[in-house]
Amino acid sequence: MKTKIIGALTVAVAAGISAPAWAAWDKITNLDVGYHADRDVASPNFGGPVERLQFTARGSDIQCKYVRARFDNGTTADLFSGRLRQNSAQSVDLPGTRRNIRALVTNCHGFQKGGSSIDVYADIGSYRDTWMKSPDWARVWARIFNWGTSAGSSFDNAVNFWVPITTLRFNGRNDTDAQGTGWGGKSITAIGIKPTNDGIVCRSISVAFANGRTADLTNRVQIAPGTTKRFDLPGQDRNVSRLNARCHSVHGGPVTVQVYGNK
Predict the structure, then answer these.
(1) Is 127 in a helix, a strand, or coil?
(2) Which of 157, 178, 215, 261 is a good FRET partner for 138, with 20 to 30 A between their CA atoms?
(3) Taking the CA of residue 169 as centre, how many other CA atoms within 13 Å lie in the half-sphere pointing to its CB?
(4) pLDDT at position 223, please?
(5) In the beta sheet, which residues pair with residue 119?
C-alpha cells in the first residue's frame, strides 16, 4: 500500500491549528545511496512507533524504486517511490494504524559519482516514553535525540515543559524573513529553535510581547540540523505575541524550523 506524499511543511504556521503542523522532526539515520546503482539499504531497527516520516535527499536528486517499511507484525508497506529532489524534504504518512516500524529498506540511486544519501526524520509525537524504554535507548537513541536527556543537549531536563509553538520555513542562501504568530495565552520563559532537515544561519531573531515591547535574542547564530538552540527571554516579559527571524539555509534548499516554548 502506498501513501500520498504530503510535501514540505509551510512557513510560519500559527499555533492552534491542526497537530500535524506542530510535528517535531528527529533525525533517525542517514542512508547511503549509490551512483546509478539501485540496491537495498536497510536502516537500523527503530526504537518505537512513529507518527510520520520525512525523507531529504543529500548530494544530488535521488530516484527510488521504493522506500519500504518493515513493521513489527511482519508486514511491509511501500511508503514512497519516485524522485527526491536534492535538499527538499518529503513528509509521508504511515498506512492505516501501523506505527511500529522495525526498519526501512530503500532501493534507490543518486546522480552524483561521489555518492548521495537520504536523511530520515521521524515525528515521534506521543511515543517518546516507548522509545526511552527501548533496549537500544542508552546505546543508540539517547545519543541521537535532543530530548534533554542526552549529553550536550541544549534543552534542560524539564523536557515535558517544552511545547511546540509554530513552524518556520526558509529557502535559499540569502536571508529571508519569517514570522511566527499565534502565541496568545502562552506565557513562556525561553524559546527553542530547531532546524530539521538542514542547518540555518540567522542574522537576527527577535520577539514582540503583548505589552508592545520587543527584544533581540541574537544578532547572528548558526544552528546545525537536529540541534535545538535555547534563548532565554530577558527581564520579566513572558507573554510573547510574535517571533521574527531573518535566516537562510546552509545548503541553499528549503529548511523547516521548529519553534518551542518553555513554560
Answers:
(1) helix
(2) 261
(3) 15
(4) 92
(5) 30, 56
Cell of 81: 517511490
Side chain identity at 180, as an amino acid letter?
G
Q: In the chain, pLDDT over 90 holds for what percent of residues? A: 21
Phi, psi of 133 (to 5 degrees): -95, 0
Alpha helices in 3-145 (DSSP H): 128-132
152 CB-near residues (< 8 Å, 6+ apart): none
Q: What is the DSSP string of 202-249?
A: EEEEEEEETTS-EEEEESSEEE-TT-PEEEEPPTT--BEEEEEEEEEE
Q: Could you tell me which of 87, 8, 15, 118 has the C-alpha nearest to residue 52? A: 8
Q: Which residues of the chain have a pLDDT value below 70? A: 1-24, 146-162, 181-187, 263
Helix H, strand E, coil C: the string for 71-84 is ECCCCEEEEEEEEE
Q: Which long-range contacts (CB under 8 A, 24 or more apart) does 155-160 make?
A: 155/192, 155/228, 155/230, 156/230, 156/262, 158/262
> Is 44:101 a contact under the CB 8 Å cutoff?
no
pLDDT computed for residue 156 by the predictor? 41
Q: What angle do CA 198, 203, 204 make, to 5 degrees?
A: 110
Helix (H), strand (E) counts: the chain: 1, 17
